[in-house]
Amino acid sequence: MGKNGKKLVLFDIDGTLISAGGAGTRSMNLAFHALFGIKDAFKDIPMAGRTDPQIMKDGLKSHHLPYMDGNVGKMEAMYLKFLEHEINNPLRHVKPGIKETLSVSREMDMIIGLLTGNLEKGAEIKLNAFGLHQYFLDGAFGSDDEDRDKLLPIAIGKFAQKGFEFAPEDCIVVGDTPSDVQCAKIHGAHCIAVATGPYSKESLLNTAADIVLDSLEETEKYTHFIMSR
User: Fold this and answer.
1) What is the pLDDT of residue 33?
2) Measured distance CA(137)–CA(228) in Å, rounded
3) Residue pLDDT, tens place only, 17-62
4) Measured between alpha carbons, how far apart are the two ends of the chain, in Å?
5) At what angle do helices 23-36 and 120-128 cross, to 10 degrees?
6) Tell me: domain 8-20+93-227, CATH 1.10.10.10, correct?
7) Cβ neighbours of residue 148 under 8 Å, at least 6 residues apart?
8) Residue of 62, 102, 107, 141 whose CA lies nearest to 219
């Protein structure tokens, strides 16, 4: 528990809090086409659990385009422009139990933040579409570092600037991929894995996650785990 007697719970976004209905992938493809004239540029690029800058670099490299000359920055700006539009689609949805989980977390005086591969502005666009952005005080994003494994210390540093002192062992990362688990455990933080993304419960049980839930509808298990840390 932090010096202030609180826990820091850091949520991933895609697959954990929401499904954007494919808006992120479409926006990446549209941005790439707008800038470089290549369609479906990311069809063979893995995305789950990775940061947006990593994905963009891979897209550029796979099409033999330079990524050290400002192309990633151009991609980011164009991607965000398309995302504002693409997030408004009929397939987007909030994952099961999320609003209840966030409300209970607030009531129990937990500090709630984000740890996500999304660009900070992209995270804001996605969460605002569901009225969820207001729940999160701050976080660490793909725009802070393209290496997800470096994001937990960044999040801790940002919360320290807001007057909340946490050690890694005071933190719980909630995510839906093995990458979410890894970025927590390498720093000694706890991790709740949820099988609401592309990975099955069975595959998540084979990670170092402290607990694996079918979804965050299992709010009682979620709160019990956090309060027992």
Assistant:
1) 98
2) 23
3) 999 999 999 999 999 999 999 999 999 999 988 999 999 999 999 9
4) 8
5) 130
6) no
7) 49, 50, 51, 117, 142, 179, 182, 183
8) 102
